[in-house]
Each structure stands twice: as C-alpha cells, then as structure tokens.
Design goal:
3-stranded mixed beta sheet, 8 helices, mainly alpha, two-stranded antiparallel ribbon
Amino acid sequence: MRLEHHDFRGADLVGGDPALDLVNTVTARDTQPRDWLDDYFALLRWARQTECFARADLATLETQAQAAPAKAAAALTRCKALREALCDALYALAHERVPTPLDLDTIDQARLAASKAARLVSRDSRLQTQWTAERSGLDLIAHVITAYAIELLKDARVERLRVCDGNDCGWVFIDTSKNGRRRWCDMATCGNVAKARRFQQRQRE
C-alpha cells in the first residue's frame, strides 16, 4: 500500500458514519491502494473534517505529536491496525460473510483500550461516554472511532452496508437510498465516471 499526501475535505466523508470514513482514508482498494494517512498530522487533518472532535482536543494532540514523534507514529500504527481490521470485517459483512476471528479480536482489543480511557459524564440529564486528549493521549481519535465502529456493527444500518462499485475506489458506505440500490460512494465522482465509461463504450460499439 503506497503512502500518499492528501488534503482532506468534506467531500471525502461519504461513508455515512465516521468509522466508515476512517476506512475510506485508503482509496483504490480494488486496484492499487493508496493510504492517505502518511503521518499522524494527516490523521489530525482528517479528524478536523469529521467534526467529531473538539478543536481544543485536536490542538492538544498536535502539540503532543510534535513533542513526541515516535509516540505519534506508534499511535498512528494502532489506528491503522483498527482501520484495516474494520475494513476487512465490513467487506465480509457487505458480502454476507463472517468476519475473521483475528479481525474481530483486533477490534475488540481497540474496544477494551477505548473503554479504559473513557469516562462517564452527565449532560442534559443523561449519562454519556466521553474521551479527552488528557485521558486518551494520542490514541484519542482511535478511541472515538472505535466507539462509532462498535455501535455501527451492532446497528441495523449494517444491513445497508455497501462497497462502491466504481473503479479505483473500494470505499464503504451506508446506502440511504429509498430503494436500497445505491452503487457508488458518491454520484458526483464514481457515479459520473461509471456513466461516462458506459457512454464511451456504447459510442465505440
């Protein structure tokens, strides 16, 4: 898998869930995969686009990463291990297969680590689970995304899980269309490319 610098933007978040959007930080999984998380700061750029994290926490993580590059690299490695195990499990579920015990164990270990760092807080008369940069350190992003992943895997939405039918993509997404026949992660990109290719094929024929 080739590392590639990428400037993340809102259009990159088409999965319908932050856990899916993390998986989609690798593109072209069906051909020549390119990993957009070339360093920990790329993970921070992605996290800012998701709006799942407090700006203050991300600023703290940036300071921590600058002060301890080796620790930041290790945290990124753990986050990528979660991402790849989650990807394999999601691909299996999308194709009506059972995820492997190894992938489930990796996700479960991430769940245990996230649970250890979490704390309960009272907000609007309800208890909520919260992660902070102070408690999670450089693993904050992985901890929060793990929580999203566990909820997704238990949710009925997983029945609408799809893998993009476009070429040079392989992104995963939740199909929210009424008829449940959405084929592409994004009509403006993979969908239009596929239509253009079909048109060119018809012209040649």
